[in-house]
Amino acid sequence: LVLAERVGFTGPEIMFTANDTPASEFQKARALGAIINLDDLSHLPYVAEHAGLPDLLCFRYNPGSLKEGNLIIGKPEEAKYGLTRNQLLTGYQKARNLGVNRFGLHTMVASNELNVDYFVETARLMFALAVELWQELGIRLEFINLGGGLGIPYRPDDQPINLNQLSQGIQAAYNDIIVAAGLHPLTLSLECGRIITGPFGCLVSRVRHIKRTYKTFVGLDASMADLMRPGLYGAYHHISLPAKLTAPVAGQYDVTGSLCENNDKFAIDRPLPEPAIGDLVVIHDTGAHGQAMGFNYNGKLRPAELLLRPDGSVQQIRRAETLEDYFATIDFTDLPEFHC
């Protein structure tokens, strides 16, 4: 919320989706005039008590077994997000009784999905629900947010999602369901963070050590603290050695960091040219879920971020962390003396 505020977004330009959210964050969202998207029925009285209910409110829908999730988010019925259909109907009724006059609907049941049909099917599901809300409760939605999840081609042989096909499929579903029910106009939105930022960032590292035991490990000066996705859920990121782009594959390597965790691996059994100590290594498509998911475990310090401009110039947009940053929150001044 503060980041959105600092870069100039205000009011309904901001969509704030609750997720075990404290009162202070609801209060900040209300102060900014953000659209508040509730994740649970219990949030309704909580927001009313701690921040006051807005005139416009949204609920997040979890379709359960009506919709299959994908690898990253998993089965909707096992996800912690969103309300069931019956809870949703109750939520809209209660919100209206508490004075809310305008409503939206949200869902997100996939992450990094490249199949256009998946999103079109989700749109049809949501449009049908909008018709139900109108027919059963007399509530006419102002908008539907279809959530995020639009994927990017992390693997060299992946095909990018066809955005023209996607928009045409959603438009056809809109005409078939929303227009046919007399509920046009209805604002539609998507949360496209990954597709906007993901392909435009790289983690640049260097080979620090090469270890040969039962396998060959290429140890980098980066770690999972800089890019968590591969270690967290086995996500693939393409890896290249800029000085050896035309060199033949020499073998399979585990590309690792220096955390004391065996899942600190950027790649397992990855075919690569023969690496050498000091080689630059580029880990591609880290513009999303890279720095934002970074951490300081094992005392690791997060790296600087550099922006490459169209004219070829480079600008630092985030400095590297220092030990002073790492220890800044620890109060050493009044620690009692102790002896081993």
Describe the structure.
The chain is an alpha/beta fold. The chain folds into two domains: 55-197, TIM Barrel; 201-323, Lyase, Ornithine Decarboxylase, Chain A, domain 1, CATH 2.40.37.10. 26% of the residues lie in helices and 20% in strands. It has nine helices and 14 strands. Strand 1 (15-17), helix 2 and strand 2 form a beta-alpha-beta unit. The longest helix has 22 residues, at 116-137. The chain is globular, with a radius of gyration of 24 Å. The two termini are 46 Å apart. The relative contact order is 0.09.
In short:
The chain has helices at 2-6, 23-32, 43-50, 85-97, 116-137, 163-179, 193-197, 229-233, 323-327, and strands at 15-17, 35-38, 56-60, 102-106, 143-145, 187-189, 203-212, 216-220, 239-240, 251-256, 265-272, 280-283, 305-308, 314-318. The protein is of the alpha/beta class and 340 residues long. It folds into two domains: 55-197, Alanine racemase (TIM Barrel, Alpha-Beta Barrel); 201-323, Lyase, Ornithine Decarboxylase, Chain A, domain 1.
